[in-house]
């Protein structure tokens, strides 16, 4: 039975685990906000952060070294706590939420590319053109507004208010 006890006994003080998990979550959240939206891909920044940190934290409990399942559980609970707190704060206080969660950034206004946003997101004209083509738009002049969304994808409102094509799905019938 001593082996089973070592699996569940805390090997690190719980306060240290909570402080490490909190500091890591908050530091990574700030870093991901600074990096920009386009790095997020199809998920929101907090979604990516949550998945990565929970996976890493849960892995601690799987290692038989100096960590236990309980250590990993405390760390996962800490990360989930901060995720819920930041979501609740963003919901309850929208002004503060704009600091925590990214907002859509206008890439195109009235057919003109916003160079400031392109620089901020480190996007080239060619990358924007490629994204427009995925939506069936050949020329930025056809676009009334285009936004880089918080999840890193680009949404488009055409000047003719027609529905732009969505990104093409792969043909799985071949």
Automatic annotation (TrEMBL):
Organism: Pseudonocardia ammonioxydans
Domain of life: Bacteria
Family of the protein in this entry: Belongs to the UPF0702 family.
Domain YetF C-terminal: 93-161
Lineage: Bacteria, Bacillati, Actinomycetota, Actinomycetes, Pseudonocardiales
UniProt keyword list: Cell membrane, Membrane, Transmembrane, Transmembrane helix
Stored InterPro entries: DUF421, UPF0702_alpha/beta_dom_sf
Localization in the cell: Cell membrane
Annotated Gene Ontology cellular component terms: plasma membrane
Gene3D superfamilies registered for this protein in UniProt: bsu07140 like domains
Keyword Cell membrane: yes
Protein name as annotated: YetF C-terminal domain-containing protein
Membrane topology term: Multi-pass membrane protein
Entry's transmembrane regions: 48-66, 72-91
